[in-house]
């Protein structure tokens, strides 16, 4: 019976103080110098990457060959299996020609002059533009707006002249 208020005791006997827990590996236990000096590396396999099918080129070839129905196109795709070209070689060639100071094909932005920021120059430029804008708006308000009435509209846009018709119905010929 366990003691009241205490858990049941373990029945296993523990090893002495000189026992080391864990697994000892004879061939690898060289300590820190071996861990730093000999890294376990995995060699990459030489598997060839299967590229996806190039349907644009296959469809163009099928059209040049005279295929017109879906069945003919399917047969052409089955027997003329054209794959996309591997672009990794092209990319590497392109990367080598890029200058060192260029980031992703774009030149770096020019640095913002810190002295202009400290003197609030950008705020002053914005304020000048706002003042010029308000001056232009005031000038537009001062100009008198002339409204067009019907007479001025008809003077500037005359009505089209009606052409006289020379054809008359046959029943009015004898009048």
Radius of gyration, in angstroms, nearest whole number: 45 Å
Annotation, overall tally of beta strands:
0
* Sheet of most strands: none
> How would you describe the shape?
elongated
Low-confidence runs of at least 5 consecutive residues: none
Count of DSSP H/I helices: 7
Q: Roughly what is the average pLDDT, rounded to an integer?
A: 80
Instruction: Note the run of SSEs as H and E.
Output: HHHHHHH
What is the share of helical residues?
40-55%
User: Which class best fits the helix and strand makeup?
Assistant: mainly alpha
* C-alpha end-to-end distance: 141 Å
Could you tell me the strand content as a percent range?
A: under 5%
Please explain how this structure is put together.
It holds the Pfam family CFAP77. It comes from Scytalopus superciliaris. InterPro entries: CFAP77 (IPR029147). This is CFA77 protein. The protein is mainly alpha-helical and 175 residues long. Among the domains are: 50-83, no CATH class; 112-140. 41% of the residues lie in helices and 0% in strands. It contains seven helices and no strands. The chain has helices at residues 31-37, 55-65, 70-79, 88-97, 114-118, 121-142, 150-156. Helix 2 (55-65) packs across helix 3. The radius of gyration is 45 Å and the shape is elongated. The mean pLDDT is 80.
Q: Which descriptors would you attach to this protein?
A:
175 residues; mainly alpha; 7 helices; 41% helix; 0% strand; elongated; CFAP77; CFA77 protein
């Amino acid at each position: 019976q366990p003691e009241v208020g205490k858990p049941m005791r373990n029945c296993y006997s523990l090893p002495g103080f000189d026992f080391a827990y864990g697994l000892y590996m004879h061939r690898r236990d060289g300590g820190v110098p071996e861990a730093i000096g000999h890294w376990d590396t995995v060699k990459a396999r030489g598997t060839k990457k299967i590229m996806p099918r190039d349907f644009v080129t296959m469809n163009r070839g099928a059209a040049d060959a005279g295929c017109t129905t879906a069945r003919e196109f399917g047969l052409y795709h089955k027997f003329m299996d054209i794959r996309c070209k591997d672009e990794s070689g092209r990319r590497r060639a392109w990367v080598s020609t890029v200058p060192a100071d260029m980031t992703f094909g774009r030149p770096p932005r020019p640095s913002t002059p810190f002295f202009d920021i400290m003197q609030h120059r950008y705020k002053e430029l914005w304020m000048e533009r706002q003042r010029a804008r308000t001056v232009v708006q005031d000038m537009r308000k001062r100009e008198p707006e002339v409204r067009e009435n019907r007479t001025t509209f008809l003077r500037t846009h005359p009505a089209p002249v009606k052409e006289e018709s020379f054809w008359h119905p046959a029943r009015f010929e004898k009048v």
